[in-house]
Design brief:
about 190 residues, alpha/beta, Rossmann fold, two-stranded antiparallel sheet, 6 helices, 10 strands, globular
């Protein structure tokens, strides 16, 4: 369901095979495999902080027979030090921002600001609230207010729009906290003329 949701959502948002997509927190390529298959060769870049998880993603890529699509898979323990020599039409972070401290979120938004094309969009699901929800696999589970995301985006030259809960967008997991997460669309702020 999570795999199908990711490609379906991005295609509904206008993703075409010619676009370049960056997947922040690509993990084992659960969402990456269909995206790599859909996009033109070399148009997918996945970034992951955990080496063992990225190794599993490479294994999944081989098993899917998609190595010839030439995706770029990058181990990145610190996104503030990452530079990819390209702008992206789409940047995607599924179940990733909810695991970032404020400092890492700011670093990620700074990266997005430098690598998102002027007409591009960054989509990420978040937990809106003011109470953190513990830990998952060694990462915090962080809730923030929409205003805090707006401020963080604004400080990085970005604008945020709330697209609403995941469930009406097609993410139906029957786990209340997952289905009630919200999807954000983040874009470059308009430049004053």
């Amino acid at each position: 369901m999570k795999r199908d949701f990711q490609i379906r959502f991005l295609r509904d948002m206008g993703l075409k095979p010619v676009h370049y997509l960056l997947d922040i927190g690509c993990g084992t390529l659960r969402g990456g495999i269909p995206l790599i298959g859909y996009l033109q060769d070399g148009h997918y870049v996945g970034v992951e902080v955990r080496a063992n998880v990225l190794d599993e993603g490479r294994k999944e890529l081989r098993e899917a027979g998609l190595e010839g699509k030439k995706p770029m898979l990058l181990l990145c323990p610190d996104i503030s030090r990452l530079n990819v020599d390209r702008k992206f039409d789409y940047i995607w972070a599924f179940s990733v921002l909810i695991h970032m401290s404020d400092k890492i979120l700011d670093d990620a938004l700074s990266f997005v600001s430098r690598h998102l094309s002027r007409e591009g969009a960054f989509y990420a699901n978040v937990i809106i609230g003011d109470k953190n929800e513990g830990n998952w696999d060694g990462f915090p589970v962080v809730a923030r207010t929409l205003d805090s995301y707006s401020r963080a985006c604004g400080m990085n030259g970005l604008t945020v729009s709330d697209l609403g809960p995941l469930k009406p967008l097609g993410h139906i997991s029957n786990v209340g906290s997952h289905d009630n997460q919200r999807m954000l669309r983040i874009s470059m702020s308009a430049v004053d003329s």
